Amino acid sequence: MDSAWLRLPPRTGWCAWVEDEGVLLAHDRAGWVGTDPASLQNLALPGLGTTADASNPSLSMPNAALWTAKTVAEGGTGDLFHSMNKQTTGDDPGLTLHIKLQ
What we know:
This protein is mainly beta. It has strands at 15-18, 23-27, 32-35, 47-48, 59-60. The strands form 2 sheets. The protein has a 3-stranded antiparallel beta sheet with strand order 1-2-3, with no helix packed on it. A two-stranded parallel sheet has the order 4-5. A hairpin with a 4-residue loop joins strand 2 and strand 3. It is extended, with a radius of gyration of 19 Å. The mean pLDDT is 88.
């Protein structure tokens, strides 16, 4: 069976991991922008699919979200825990689900 390369023009948001350089690339309409994993730590305003701001310093706007537990074979326990911490006993660690009808 013969094989061939399929060349596709990159789209905004496409990501690629360059193994031999240890660099994560993302396409931003203008071209490929690279970063190393260490620079992704302690981001001040991470926005995924939207722009984060002071009121919402970590913001994501996906159509769907999935959290999957790390398996035992991958070094995990197979469990998936979500934790919310609060500073004092009077603070509220509550989870608010806001449903907006459009």
